[in-house]
Each structure stands twice: as C-alpha cells, then as structure tokens.
Amino acid sequence: MRLEELGITFIDVDMGLYEVDGSLSGQVAVVTSAPQHRDRARARIPIDDAATANEYTQNIQIADLNALNATLPVIKSKKLRGFYPDLEHEISSSYHLNDNCLINEAPE
User: Fold this and answer.
1) What's the total number of domains in the chain?
2) Other C-beta atoms within 10 Å of 15: how many?
3) Residues 6 or more apart whose Cβ sits within 8 Å of residue 3
4) I need a surface site. Which of 44, 75, 82, 102 has the fewest CB within 10 A?
5) What is Dmax (Cα atoms) for the chain?
6) Which of 27, 30, 31 is CA-nearest to residue 98?
7) In which domain, by residue range, is 41 found?
C-alpha cells in the first residue's frame, strides 16, 4: 500500500451489517495504521469484503451509523494531533450495535 511505503499514518473505517430476525445488527470499526504497528493494523483492515455477507453492500443507507462511521476517525485523528488526550493509544475501535459496546484494542 502506497501510504505504508511513504510511512504515512492513516485511519481505515469499515461497516458491516447483517440481518437478524428482521432487524439489522453489525459493527462500525476504525483502525489506525502507523509505522510502529503496521502488522497489527493490517490484520484488522479488511482487504476483500466481497466474500462476506454484508447488508450494507445492498445500498442500505443508515444515517446514524454513517455519522458514527464518519465521527470516530475524526476523533482518533484529533487524538493523534494532541487535540484530545490519547491515554490508550488504541490501534482499533469497534462499536457493536447489538450490545451497544465500544471495544478498543491498545498496542502491546
């Protein structure tokens, strides 16, 4: 990936939705790829979503999840620049819709 070759830190976002008994569930994920932890970030960035069933690929537009998917990387970007404190220095964060849980993974 060109950004990695140039040593640039970047933030990847992903959304996966699926149907359960007529309702939508799923997650919104944010992964920060920085030079010091590329391998761990790369393992969390989906490369080929085509093999995974994902209701979002059916052109479902959900304003609230789209807004969250846009907001989380902005917050992380502001943490990287010192605007907000970054106490955990998380590599990834994922919000799980079914249990309203935000899970962070910090570097080792």
Assistant:
1) 1
2) 21
3) 10, 33
4) 82
5) 46
6) 27
7) 2-105
